[in-house]
Specification:
By secondary structure, the protein is an all-alpha fold. It has one domain (about 1-35, about 40-285). It is about 75% helix and about 0% strand. It is built from 11 helices and no strands. The longest helix has about 40 residues, at about 195-235. The radius of gyration is 23 Å and the shape is globular.
């Protein structure tokens, strides 16, 4: 965390207040300024860049493990990946009972877990490391060059993933039940065919609620974790204001270490929860009412 303290202290010397420092680090690198609260023509370039790079990295890791797999005594890397694959497959078998569906669902769940874990893990890098490198390489102004590196702290990314899960669920609803039977189910469950409009309304609310909560849960936890790291980084800049503030940089190192250890649980747990909810929602799509 010492790199964070150095850059945070530098920011203080350059005249940035704590609020300006946090706002700057919570601003995305976008293709154009937003014209309103909701502007679908604007997209976050940094979130797309890092999510794609980490997705490719995750696929490469799994491909490398599969290519180097042998029937003999596995190495540590192969053993770790095999344990992960067996763990995810066991979870899929317990939730999705259709063996044919699991041929797609199990690899999907594995990919989701690895991808989200890697994206969450970007939070362990010093807050200012990659944004500062980006500023130097791009030759930009530190006050106007933006780069957020934790894709799961971007609501558009997490909601995009949860909407993708919703589409997978709709696909299996139609594939397993048939389009006509699924439409009939939307109007007949859970209160019977006589209350068709109410049933349909409840079903739509359920789909929307599951999708929004699925994405918001991951976003909320990672956004909060990112914000805490920024606050800890600011503690290291206290030395720039006063020699009497020497205790804050020390507290900064201790707090950063403790929070990093605790954050390991959050990073893994959030990836696991998102994967499990994906399996649960797909499993529900196989159930007939």
């Amino acid at each position: 965390m010492s790199a964070e303290a150095a850059v945070a202290g530098n920011a203080a010397h350059q005249g940035q207040t704590a609020g300006e420092y946090i706002v700057h680090h919570l601003t995305h690198w976008q293709n154009q300024p937003m014209k309103g609260v909701i502007d679908f023509s604007v997209y976050n370039i940094d979130s797309i860049l890092w999510s794609v790079l980490l997705g490719v990295l995750g696929c490469f890791i799994l491909w490398k493990a599969a290519k180097g797999a042998s029937s003999g005594v596995p190495g540590r890397f192969q053993a770790a990946v095999e344990l992960l694959v067996e763990f995810v497959d066991a979870q899929a078998k317990g939730i999705v009972h259709n063996e044919k569906s699991r041929k797609l669902v199990s690899p999907l769940a594995l990919t989701v877990f690895v991808w989200i874990f890697l994206m969450n893990s970007m939070d362990f890098l010093p807050v200012d490391l990659l944004p500062t490198l980006w500023t130097v390489l791009s030759g930009g102004d530190p006050h106007h060059t933006y780069m957020r590196v934790v894709p799961t702290a971007d609501l558009s990314v997490t909601l995009g993933m949860s909407i993708s899960v919703l589409l997978v669920c709709i696909f299996y609803n139609i594939k397993i039940k048939g389009f006509g039977h699924w439409i009939h189910e939307l109007f007949s469950a859970p209160f019977g065919a006589k209350l068709g409009p109410i049933n349909f309304l409840f079903q739509m609310i359920e789909f929307i609620a599951k999708t929004v909560s699925h994405g918001m849960r991951l976003f909320g936890n990672m956004y909060a974790g990112e914000l805490v790291f920024m606050l800890i980084a600011l503690m290291g800049s206290a030395l720039a204001f006063s020699a009497q503030g020497i205790m804050l940089p020390i507290a900064h190192i201790i707090a950063g270490s403790v929070w990093s250890i605790f954050h390991i649980l959050i990073v893994g747990l959030q990836a696991f929860v998102f994967m499990m909810l994906t399996l649960v929602y797909v499993g529900q799509a196989h159930d007939a009412h």
